[in-house]
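Task: sequence design from structure.
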């Protein structure tokens, strides 16, 4: 009997879920009988759009949400001056403390079924960050599709931001803990980047790259 009451409670409040303040409050009420963190992922399938933690902060005027999205505790999505769109596909998981920000016409696209683990950061200024479908991004990864100019005689804080075309992550790639991806990089479909690597050059499809700077050390498709 108690379990049935809890299920009805959860389903009732998830009818009102959404990324707005009211929808996030409804998600908080729906999650009262569920453990935090990964324990609330199943709730995303119950809402029209998904589950949005009441502690998430969404300050962005141009977001497109897919279905069954999970937005965990303390996620921040922020639009700075002239920030471009954020597109989040269906069944995407944004876990605790993930930061997504756009500014100066930068944009972010996240494909279906991509999972971004805690405290990763996507800072899209000037350039775009395009993440494919089914990508696994471990905790504390960072993506920077821009750099400062370094003209002599001008303080760095007065230098303009520049981009070399942004960042693209192919479908089903896997980035280990603490990976940093810099401007102008394409990581191919099914590629793997080892923990702590700094990616400054392209990684081909199926490539396995490690190190600072990251270098391709083998190819997954050759191991079949």
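Answer:
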């Amino acid at each position: 009997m108690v379990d049935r009451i809890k299920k009805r409670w959860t389903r009732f409040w998830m009818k009102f879920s959404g990324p707005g303040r009211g929808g996030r409050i409804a998600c908080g009420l729906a999650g009262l009988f569920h453990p935090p963190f990964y324990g609330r992922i199943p709730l995303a399938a119950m809402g029209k759009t998904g589950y949005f933690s009441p502690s998430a902060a969404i300050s962005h005027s141009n977001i497109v949400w897919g279905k069954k999205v999970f937005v965990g505790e303390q996620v921040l999505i922020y639009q700075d001056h002239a920030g471009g769109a954020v597109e989040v596909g269906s069944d995407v998981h944004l876990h605790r403390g993930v930061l997504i920000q756009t500014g100066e016409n930068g944009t972010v696209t996240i494909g279906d079924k991509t999972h971004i683990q805690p405290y990763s950061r996507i800072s899209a200024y000037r350039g775009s960050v395009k993440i494919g479908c089914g990508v696994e991004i471990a905790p504390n990864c960072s993506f920077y599709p821009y750099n400062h100019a370094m003209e002599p005689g001008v303080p760095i804080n007065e230098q303009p931001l520049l981009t070399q075309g942004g960042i693209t992550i192919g479908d089903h790639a896997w980035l280990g803990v603490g990976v940093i991806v810099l401007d102008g990089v394409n990581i191919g479909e099914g590629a793997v980047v080892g923990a702590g690597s700094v990616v400054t050059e392209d990684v081909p499809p199926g490539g396995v790259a490690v190190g600072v700077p990251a270098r391709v050390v083998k190819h997954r498709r050759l191991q079949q």
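The chain has a mean pLDDT of 95.
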